[in-house]
Amino acid sequence: MVGFFSKKAIPFSFVVALIATLGSLFYSEIAGYEPCKLCWFQRIFMYPQVILLGITLWKKNGILVIYNSISLSVIGAVIAGYHYLLQIGLVPELSCAAVGYSVACSQRFVMNFGYITIPMMAFTAFAMIITFLLIKKRAWLNRVLYNKKMKNEH
Predict the structure, then answer these.
(1) How many Cα atoms are found within 13 Å in the side-chain-facing hemisphere of 47?
(2) What is the pLDDT of residues 123-144, one digit of tens each?
(3) Residue 60's CB: how many other CB atoms inside 10 A?
(4) What is the pLDDT of residues 4-20, one digit of tens each?
(5) Pick from 61, 80, 65: which is nearest to 127 by CA?
(6) Please, which residues have CB within 8 angstroms of residue 148's CB and are 6 or more apart in sequence?
(7) Between 56 and which of 27, 62, 92, 126 could a Cys-Cys bridge form, CB atoms 3.0 to 4.6 Å apart?
(8) CB–CB of 41/78 below 8 Å?
């Protein structure tokens, strides 16, 4: 099972980033939900991943992109996690979070199944990308260590 996900980690991560980006654009441009300040930060960490992972798919090589994408996803997940906690009321909204030019970060446009909000969707997307790419990174490191061991034995 891990072998399957390590081989498909980049395409799966690309699809997750693409769906998250298109979903984000749908909510703001078609559904008319104005993004708050924290939503913009989450977009900053998700949107470039479509390009990075797309190029990696095309070039078929990209261990450095894996590190970059994991870094972007960890930061994005922290922001999305904080945003979710703010929306469900576990974290008080700071005055800087509700600036005059956007909606309040605590405003919920979507609430499905009693817990799924837009920040939870973003958090899930970031977590999926992190998981897929960590599996890929581990498989790559195992392959490098195996090749090094085989080289030293001969």
Answers:
(1) 8
(2) 999 999 999 999 998 888 887 6
(3) 7
(4) 878 899 999 999 999 99
(5) 80
(6) none
(7) 62
(8) no
C-alpha to C-alpha distance for 138 and 27, rounded to whole angstroms: 35
Q: Where are the domains of the chain?
A: 8-153
104: left (phi over 0), alpha (psi -120 to 50) or beta: beta
Share of the chain above pLDDT 70, in %: 88
Residues 137 and 101: beta-carbon distance below 8 Å? no
Give me 52's structure tokens: 């990075």
The single residue listed with the structure tokens 């939503």 is: 39
As its CATH architecture, domain 8-153 has: Up-down Bundle (1.20)
Question: Dihedrals φ, ψ of 112, to 5°?
Answer: -105, 145
- Please name the amino acid found at residue 12: F
- The Cα–Cα gap between 82 and 79 comes to 5
